[in-house]
From TrEMBL:
Substrate binds at H141, Y205. Its EC number is 2.7.1.21. GO terms for molecular function: ATP binding; thymidine kinase activity. Keywords: ATP-binding, DNA synthesis, Kinase, Nucleotide-binding, Transferase. GO terms for cellular component: cytosol. It catalyses: thymidine + ATP = dTMP + ADP + H(+). PANTHER family: THYMIDINE KINASE, THYMIDINE KINASE, CYTOSOLIC. It is an enzyme of class 2 (transferase). One of its GO terms (biological process) is DNA biosynthetic process. This is Thymidine kinase.
Length: 216
């Protein structure tokens, strides 16, 4: 990424409250800026609002960027915040082609719905100097990290933003889990590890604190 591009991305990032990109790394005489920001938390925690605040300034610049969302996510056609605001997204089944063409910033919503192979693609993007911002739920219905989220941590992100929500049961401010409900009752059936459930109306979801969540 040429120095002029780094400056432009920094300006847009500062406008959105991100701050400047981390220090550059010189590899083989080539300037390589590596930056991975991860936004995690339960449902209703404000992850989408955080992503919108970080990436929406890019819409008013000439910086080439793309924002992806899993095709499995059927609830919205864009990154939508419950507090208002949205970002247009590309619905995809895989991130295999995410780095193709001219792109300086990649955003990925609902990252837990992708695969470990998709995370490897993002790792290559970061090493190539593309700024990557992702958001998603960290814990599955068993209270364990989704495999793609675990793979993200193995990339050693420069910044991790963790959001909590209001518990839908006791109304405390420290909801950390997403309770999956099937016909109004906690979903506790055993699934293959780290299986992302569809967000298409089949199940409903609540934010719950550690005291109120029901785990298998």
């Amino acid at each position: 990424m040429p120095t002029s591009r780094i400056s432009r991305v920094n300006q847009a990032a500062s406008a959105g409250g991100v701050g400047v990109l981390p220090a550059a790394d010189l590899r083989g005489g080539t300037l390589c800026v590596m930056d991975l920001t991860v936004i995690l938390g339960p449902m209703k925690g404000g992850k989408s609002l955080e992503m919108i605040s970080l990436l929406s300034p890019l819409q008013h610049t000439g910086i080439p960027h793309r924002i992806y969302q899993s095709a499995r996510h059927g609830r919205d056609t864009a990154v939508m915040s419950r507090s208002g605001g949205s970002l247009e997204t590309l619905k995809v089944h895989t991130l295999a082609g995410a780095t193709e063409g001219d792109v300086e910033v990649i955003g990925v919503d609902e990252i837990h719905m992708f695969t470990v192979d998709d995370i490897a693609v993002l790792g290559m993007a970061v090493r190539a100097g593309i700024k990557v911002v992702v958001a998603g739920i960290d814990l599955d219905h068993r209270g364990q990290l989704f495999a793609p989220v675990r793979a993200l941590f193995e990339l050693a992100p420069e910044k991790v933003i963790y959001r909590r929500a209001v518990c839908d049961v006791c109304r405390s401010l420290d909801a950390t889990h997403t309770q999956v409900l099937e016909h109004g009752k906690p979903f506790i059936r055993e699934l293959a590890p780290s299986t992302p459930l569809p967000d298409d109306g089949t199940y409903t979801y609540e934010a719950r604190c550690r005291r109120c969540v029901v785990l298998p």
